[in-house]
Amino acid sequence: MKALLGRFFASPTLTWYMGKKFVLTSFGVLAALVLILQTLDLLGESGNILAYPGNGQAELWQYVSLRMPQLIARFLPFAVLLGALITFVTLNQNSEIIAMKSAGVSAHQILTPLIVASIGIAALSFAFNERIVARATGTLNAWEAAEYGPIPKDRGIVSNVWVRAGDDLIHADQASGRGAGVKLANVTVYDRIGGTLETIISAESGRYDRGGWLLEKVRRFDVTRGVASDLPSLTVARGVAPDRFTLSNVNADERNFLDLRTAIADLQAAGRPTEALEAGLWHKISGPISSVLMPLLAGVAAFGLARSGRLFIRAVIGMALGFTYFVADNFGLAMGNIGAYPPLLAAWGPPILFLLIGETVLIRTEE
């Protein structure tokens, strides 16, 4: 076991030294990035927050508490990339890399402490996203929808739902419940034929009943004749499943991994397309794992003589590789959202591709 560890780690002292230096540098960069970006973001949004009557300093701090987790989650991989680059450049400038290689330490052994530390950062990032970021995102989106006013309490109620059934449009102020127990409040049905509005049906409530929606306390307005009539009940929208109302606004960013997987299963059971949500589901894992790639992509800055004058160029190349990865990752996720890429390819294609690129660059330049 000791011999096996020796193939990956140079020594406990060197591993601890490099890992500690890398982690402290990465979190220092992250703190600086988040502080600057949060300040700029707050300056741009404070006018909208304070525009709501009664909002003040407490609401500004509330916005910061909800927005900061999003910034941390988004820019943590950038901070890990910059932390790895700064660590490698500093070690190279101080000839510590040369001393390590003179002692027989390989390039992969130099990278291993940083990769192990980045695995820990990735695990911490995943837990942070699941426990804090998803909740903060859902709360912030609801607060923004309320124009920074009081946020309605979440009781599993979906608000302002629009559903299309053939040519007809159905609107409900609220939809609550699940499955056959879904209930609608303040329902409006726009009955259209060939794109022409024929009838407007309004009801105080509606419930799913034998394949259709039973509306109660109905008022029916005939647009063509201009005649209104009241009915005790009316069944409309046969064939419209309950999940069309309750699962119409599933946002992958607002749900943790398990909740999103459950929502996807419900949508698949109803025959609804889920490719975009599946890409978001897998990206909840591949996103944090991107931190593990950053030391490998930044490794090009670790090797080569500092006095050769190419250290800056190597650092730029490492930064370019890292930022190219983020562009490819966002592009893959966008293609997955529109269904152009399969979900697994959209989420895992960029990490696997840049893992191969990073290994190729490292082997050709040093090993």
UniProtKB/TrEMBL annotation:
Q: Output the Pfam families linked to this UniProt entry.
A: LptF_LptG
Question: What is the protein's membrane topology class?
Answer: Multi-pass membrane protein
Q: Where are the transmembrane segments?
A: 21-40, 71-89, 110-128, 311-328, 340-363
Instruction: Give the UniProt subcellular location, in the record's own words.
Output: Cell membrane
Q: Does the keyword Cell membrane apply?
A: yes
GO cellular component terms, semicolon-separated:
ATP-binding cassette (ABC) transporter complex
* Superkingdom of the source species: Bacteria
Q: Which UniProt keywords apply?
A: Cell membrane, Membrane, Transmembrane, Transmembrane helix
**InterPro entries for the chain:** LptG (IPR030923), LptG/LptF_permease (IPR005495)
- Gene Ontology biological process: lipopolysaccharide transport; transmembrane transport
Enumerate the NCBIfam families for this protein: LptG_lptG (TIGR04408)
> Which PANTHER family does UniProt cross-reference here?
LIPOPOLYSACCHARIDE EXPORT SYSTEM PERMEASE PROTEIN LPTG, SLR0882 PROTEIN-RELATED
Protein name, please? Lipopolysaccharide export system permease protein LptG
Organism, scientific name: Edaphosphingomonas haloaromaticamans
Source lineage? Bacteria, Pseudomonadati, Pseudomonadota, Alphaproteobacteria, Sphingomonadales
